[in-house]
Amino acid sequence: MLLRRFYDEPLAQASFLVGCQETGEAIVIDANRDLQQYIDVAHVEGLRITHVTETHIHADYLSGTRELAARTGALMLLSREGGNEWQYAFAEGEGATLLANGAQFRVGNIAFEVIHTPGHTPEHLTFLVTDTKTSDHPVGAFTGDFIFAGDVGRPDLLEKAANVANTMESSAKALFRSLRDFRSLPPYIQLWPGHGAGSACGKSLGAMPQTTLGYELVSNWAFHIDRESEFVKQVLAGQPDPPRYFAEMKRLNRDGPPLLDGFKEPPRLEGAKLAPLVQAKALVIDTRRAEKFAAGFMPGTINIPLGRSFTTYAGSLLPYDADLYLIVDDKRAGAAAQAARDLAMIGLDRVGGAFGEKDLAAWAKGGGTLAKVPQLGVQDAHDRVARNELALVDVRNRSEWDEGHAAGVPNIPWPGIAERVNDVAEGRGIALMCQTGARSVIAASLLVARGYPNVVNVTGGFAEWEKVGLPVEAPAA
User: Which residue of 55, 212, 259, 472 is 20 to 30 Å from 328, comparing CA positions?
Assistant: First the structure.
């Protein structure tokens, strides 16, 4: 048995290739849209991809299962569990084999047993794996978003992201039962989860690429709660706000992800086209670091820094029915291609082109005026709020704000700041605070693009506010 793990940092997502070295057959589990990586590894290892499968209908990225099957001729294996609402709509028309609890299949000498593990989603499957050439005992399980290192999959996404009302508690109860049943497996089996630290599919995921059932039984909080009611309470508490694009991913992955046919580098556009696009209110995304953007940007552009959180931030702000244009850091090689690739991972495929910092500088030199986001230290922010000169808004996620925040400061999560800022501004300037000062610059760019005057960023954010001892409201005990 050959095992290869592929990890996408922006998505904090793991996918796997499992091959039988004797027969040359291989299966890919939870493929994302970066298909060439699986094809290349299979070729190097002398394998052919004969099967593709996934643990569930994903919410945080666009699945590559359908397209990988189309490109390789592999058989799709998809869940038939979950009830009528959460069946794969495209499966039957494309010849997929549907898997129910207890089903078994082979990829060469590698045996797979299907375990229905609902909770995170109703249709979720876990794949128990046995390398039959070495043992009759299972070696491990691909747990998807069921069990992570140190955590379990959140059961609230169906309600919060897919808008299926009144499902959080029932899903949490299903997750409790799935965990209870899973305890009966041998504690030595390895667990290969579908996400690592940084994913929004849980609240406290560990960074270990794999773990064992035995270790999770002693270290994972979810296995230490024996009462269903207490488990439901704990698993639903403190879950981060799901990014807005999750609902679109659930729909596309259920109905049939569009075929991409490889990543395309966006064309480099002439600098003269930048100003007309902004004037026409096209979506121009400035991907430079927050501090660079704040020091000088074209009014009307939105700052989404190209980094580990780029995909999540973009999915929280950008529509799927509009063309997008990029401004990239000239000193960062391949930035435009990387940004377009990361956008495509969540189905934002309509990137019309890219500009560089030189184009921005040329526009300013030709008479354009660069806007700036003034930076304000935490003490100055505190004092100006006390004098009623500024309205201070915490733009972190609600779950972060609930853990502790500047005293008397309201919370408006940054993706919705432009729609709600008038609720608190009352004619004053707006000071924005996040944890360290990056997301608040994104929020500032949204307000400036809407024409709001006197927007400032609080440098250091809540972390600095707390560090210097300014008033804080802690969560109730």
Answer: 259
